[in-house]
Amino acid sequence: MANPAYPMARQCPMSPPPAYASFREQGPVKVDLPDGGWAWLLTGYADVRQAMNDPRFSSDDTKMARARTQLPPNENLNSFWRMDEPEHGRLRHMMMTEFTAHRIKEWRPRIQALVEQLLDRLETLPRPVDLYAEFALALPTQVIAQLLGVPQQDYRMFAEQSRTILSLDRPEESWAAYYAMNDYLNRLIEDKEREPAEDLISRLIVDRVHTGELPRDELLPMVRFILVSGYETTTSQIALSALTLMTNPDVKATLIKEPERITAFVEESLRFWSVSQDNVLRVVDADMEFSGQTMTKGELVVLAVPGANHDERAFPNPERFDLDRGENRHVAFGFGTHLCAGASLARREVEIAIPALLARFPGLQLVGTVEDLQFRQKSLVYGLESLPVTW
Ligand code: HEM
Question: What letters, b where the CB count within 10 A reaches 16 and e where it falls short, cover 94-110?
Fold first, then answer.
């Protein structure tokens, strides 16, 4: 009998695919993939969290019998994200010195300034305004571009390329965008090799490549991965957080009355939306029994973040957006060794963007209904196509 087909669409845009609830009862289940292969799908919170930080589940792409990716094979696609120890830790450390909570704190005034500029511009636009393009996309794109040292005139181009790379339904276009981004980044790196500036790429060149710590051919995959992972997820998170405000008057009222609840709001929004929907993969690295199933070395495993974050055993009433969850131990940023390296940055961006938006446009409202919105299902990162609003 055929296994259920994966990926599965969300039926309600605000909840994971409904089948996940019955899968959770069964533990890991086998699902069929579009390329004819199959994988284990883990949807329970305990299973997903365990597998995220268990060395028997490898992140090393080269150990997979076949790749489940829309991109060209064998090209060190995703830098240390798709590696195991010790290479993973060595490369991750070089990036993390730039992304410590302390470093990111220094970014706060720059993020605030960017947010205010974008809001100033929004005020001048004819309504309805597409909050997705003009705010949710614009902010993380500019933050990550400034961080890396990408010239301003190129922001939009790389945003479009990243989005095409992450889409799951147009492989030829994804490949073309991927090669175009490589060419672009190669040129950018060469410019910075000639003339280092005050940015992350230049610092990696001067402090790591020139010292022999980072092979030059590891630099491009690392920069490319930071670029692609750094903005699409955060963009979705900002857009969907804004949607939450517009569809939950109680949540909005609480945030206006008690602005200090923003941290709880951000954490709940991360859990609720779980935008990393199809991109957390592992490969079984040792024959083993896991959660009632026999797994064999080389088998592919998909860790369903939305499934885990909507497991009622970990989050009572998971479909409710609840500011009073207390300790919110969601896995929206992963868990363990591969915990999202940009989590502090992403949190700061959402935490600054949402209150500023609310303060500037207290009457912010959706134009049309949630049913009219187009949600991006066929993408590694869940999100919206656009978000028409007025105030
Ligand atoms: C709301 C925004 C974001 C979400 C939901 C998110 C989600 C995730 C998740 C689930 C993982 C773990 C993947 C795994 O275990 O295989 C991850 C890893 C990673 N993320 Fe994010 N991310 C976000 C923003 C960012 C940003 C802003 C950056 C960079 C500027 C970034 C860079 C990375 C990197 C480099 C890794 C790989 C870490 C490693 O393998 O050690 N992410 N992210």
Answer: bbeebbeeeebeebeee
Which residues are paired to 93 by β-bridges? none
pLDDT band for 164, please (50, 70, 90 cuts): confident
Please report the domains of the chain, with CATH numbers, ordered by start residue: 84-273+317-390 (1.10.630.10)
User: 48-83 pLDDT, tens per residue?
Assistant: 999 999 999 999 878 876 555 555 555 666 788 888
Backbone angles phi, psi at 68, to 5 degrees: -110, 80
Question: What are 29's strand-pairing partners?
Answer: 41
Which residue's CA is minimally distant from atom 7 of ligand 1?
333
The residue that leads in pLDDT, 152 or 68, is 152
Residue 171: CB partners within 8 Å, gap ≥ 6? 70
- 356, 116 in Cβ contact below 8 A? yes
Band of pLDDT at residue 230, cut at 50, 70 and 90: confident
What is the rounded distance in angstroms from the CA atom of residue 80 to the CA atom of residue 69?
16
Closest C-alpha among 240, 223, 214 to residue 188: 223
pLDDT tens readout for residues 319-372: 999 999 988 999 999 999 999 999 999 999 999 999 999 999 999 999 999 999
Helices (H) and strands (E) in the chain, counts: 15, 12
Pocket of ligand 1 (CB under 6 A): 52, 59, 80-81, 92, 144, 225-226, 229-230, 233-234, 237, 275-276, 280, 305, 332-334, 338, 340-342, 345-346
User: In sequence order, what are the residues at sequence separation of 6 or more whose Cβ sits closer than 8 angstroms to the Cβ of residue 356?
Assistant: 112, 115, 116, 119
Enclosing H/E stretch for 110: helix 108-124
> How remote is the CA of residue 298 from the centroid of ligand 1, in Å?
24
pLDDT at 70: 56
Q: Look at 150 and 373; give whichever has higher pLDDT.
A: 373
Q: Which atom of ligand 1 is nearest to the CA of 280?
A: 16
Phi, psi of 281 (to 5 degrees): -120, 150
